[in-house]
Each structure stands twice: as structure tokens, then as C-alpha cells.
Amino acid sequence: MAQLSSLSPQLIWHFFEQICAIPHPSKHEARLSAWIVQWAQGEGLAVKQDKVGNIIIKKPATSGMENRKAVVLQAHIDMVPQANADTRHDFATDPIDAYVDGEWVTARGTTLGADNGIGMAGCLAVLADKTIKHGPLEVLLTTDEETGMTGAFGLEAGWLEGEILLNTDSEEDGEVYMGCAGGVDANIRFPLELVDASAGDAVELTIKGLRGGHSGCDIHRGRGNVNKLLVRLLKAAEPLGIRLAEIHGGTLRNAIPREARATLLVPATRKAEFKALVDRYAGIYQSELAATEPNLTLLVNDTPPPVKLMSPSLQQRLLDALQACPNGVMRMSDAIPGVTETSTNLGVIKTRDGEVFVQCLIRSLIDSGRESIEQMTRSLFNLAGASCEFTGAYPGWAPNVDSPVMALVRNSYQTLFGTLPNVMVIHAGLECGLFKSAYPQWDMVSFGPTIRGAHSPDEKVHIPAVERFWQLLVHVLEAIPVKSQ
């Protein structure tokens, strides 16, 4: 990571190096949080943590700027832990191996954590920089954004004094966000019905090499969902008499799944037919997904025979339900052209003690859209004999087209770069909607540098875009208007 310290703006990359060096996947942010608190105390800044672990750091206004509206800079501390199957990495203990690749910074075999580490580095850089002109500042760093938005849910009224919130969790230079989707997790459980294994050849069927990505920002890009591809092939193979022992696919409900595998028995007399079927589907998938999944690979390997198999009834109900499970874009927005309104991601399938667990993340800009997909999902899996529980619901952030801070950021971008940014609503979960419950008066906007492949090991952040993000952040802080009298 020594290369990062030579990049510009140096302060941001210095802090991002520190962030990469300290493990901080969701629900394991304590070490990084402790380092941030210690650093802030060393800088003489007022710092405190609330009961859910959110960090609030205050920096006084620079001379002559005391009468400006107070600003809250916000980022989340945690990162998504995703690694390639052939990468040995413990996100709870191992640092991120970040490096420069042309105009990008990426990581070897894992997610980079630029989501939201670059935004967090920008917040800390503002606190450290003694040359920036700004009014009263508060930095809010929240916990567990990626798996439950625990920090945003737990933020209490009265902890912060700012009137304006600048969220740094967006991922496209040239776009400024004034709204986001809400979401809910669908947690589906099939009771595991097992029978003794019958005769046959045991194989492991694996599909890998897909791009994956963010289940909100990338859901409209036509990428393959490996869980759907695996189940489609297993359904096609059922007439050959296959018997399923285990199925696993994906690791996170908010990441488009990239790798999946199934352990099964194939009748010995039909093994050649099975391999031919797999080869045929490899060609089908490669043809259908040629533009988005050039590295898609299907493998069949012999494996030790399982002792138990799923019952014929469970196998049929499970595969039928997964085959029918909605996935991808459900509806595009009529009000905001080009923006996904409602989607769902079949993110996780796990065979574990006593059950087959399935998890989907449903997102929508409107509550009724989310509720419609909830009803569809519940009905489908109830018919298949599974339970379906919805948890972690969070609201969307309703756009305010008359937002003064939106106008300020838009004008600052035009002043700096000679063009107007696109004002957008993002089909992803930002914490802004939850903040409104505790701080309804906040005027909010979200912007950040270009990040590609978030929530996947292909994640990378564009170095020139980080420079522009910093320039925009500094310009906006200097242009914050005076407080109302």
C-alpha cells in the first residue's frame, strides 16, 4: 500500500491507507473505531460515541466562518467482506491488500472497502486539514451500514447540532443524489428433510467467475445471478434422476451472487448425459450473458459420496421455489427516467444444520412497490412449505427538488468543472432516510467519487475522481451560507 501515500490528495489517501490496514467488516468495526477515536483525541477534537458505536467528532469553525450553518459530514465505518474463492483472507484479522492499477486503486482478491472508506477518509481529511475554510463541523461515522444500518437506526436526536448533512456514500463522479430506495430482507427457511443416500456417482457442480456487484446500483446492468443459473441447470437435470445433498450460493444479501455450488448424486448410467447437459448449459449461459459475464465457468468434479440426501419432496419444492423466485429489476420508475424503482436480489442460499436458508433483499423507491414484492415472495415460499420472515426494513429518502444544499452542490460542481452534474435518485440504501426520523430538519445531499464493482472483489476506485471529490467537498464547505437570524 506504500503506493497510495504518493497519490493526490495526499491526506485522503493517507487516511485510506490507515483504514485498509485495520480490519473493519460489518459488525467488526471496533478496532478501526478505536483508532479513529484515539486519532481525534490526539488532534484535540471533541469526540464521543453513542450506545450503538456511532462516532461523532466536532471541529470548530475557522476564523470568520463562525456564522455559517453547521454541517454534518457523514460516512459509514464498515465494509462488505467479499473474497474470491481462491483467495485466503480473514476479514476480521487481515488488512486489505490495496494497490494502484493505472488510474484505479483496487485490492488483491477481495473487496477494497472504498465503499465507504474513501468517503470516511475524506471526512477525516477535512478534520485534519488546517487550510480549509469552513463553518462549524461535525463528522458522523456510523456502524454496520452494510448489514443492518444499525448505526443509522440507533442515532438519537440531540447528539448533533448541524443543519446540513453531506453524505459521502455515493459512487459516481458527476452525479449528486437527492433520494434513495428503501429496503427489507426476506429470510426464508426450508426445514431440512433428509433420507439415506442411494446409489450413484457423487459430484460437485460449481458455477463461478461471474462479476457480481452491488444489488442496488448494479441490479439493472444485466449481470448474471449465479443462484438463478445454478437452480435453472439443476431443474433441467432432474429428469436424469439427480438427487441433491447440499446447495450453497452467494454470501451477502446485498451483493449479486457470483459463485454457487451443489453436491448431488447422479445415476452412474446417466453421468455422461449429465456432463453433456452441463456443457450445453455452459454454452447457453455464455451466449446469453456474453456481454456481461465473459468469465462465467461451469465445473463438474467428483466428490466423496454424501451420507444423506434431501428428500424427494424437499428437493422438488426447493428447486421449484428458487426457480420461480423473483430476481432483478421488477419495475423502472415512471417519475425518474432511467432509475430502477423496485428490485429484488436472490442473494444467499445455504444448506446448514436443520434447514436450507435463503435470503433476498427487496428494494424500492416507494413503499407500495416493496410491499408488493414482499407479498409475492411470501406467497411463493409459503406454497413451497417454507417460512418467510421480513426483517431490517428501512425507509427510502424522499427527494426534495427544492433543496438549498442540492442547489449549492450543483452550482459548486459547475463552477469547478464547467458542467452541471446529474441530479439523481439512487437505487441503493443510503442512511439518509433513517436520519430524517431523528433529525427531520436536515437538508441532505449525497456525492462521492467513482467506484466500480462495489460489494465484489472487482471493487476499485478512480483516482482522478477522488481528486474531484475532494475539490468539490472543499468548495461546498467554503460556500455554506450563513445561519438564519
Automatic annotation (TrEMBL):
GO terms for biological process: proteolysis. Its EC number is 3.4.13.18. Transmembrane segments: none annotated. It is an enzyme of class 3 (hydrolase). Keywords: Cobalt, Dipeptidase, Hydrolase, Metal-binding, Metalloprotease, Protease, Zinc. Residues 207-290 form the Peptidase M20 dimerisation domain. Belongs to the peptidase M20C family. This is Cytosol non-specific dipeptidase. It comes from Aeromonas cavernicola.
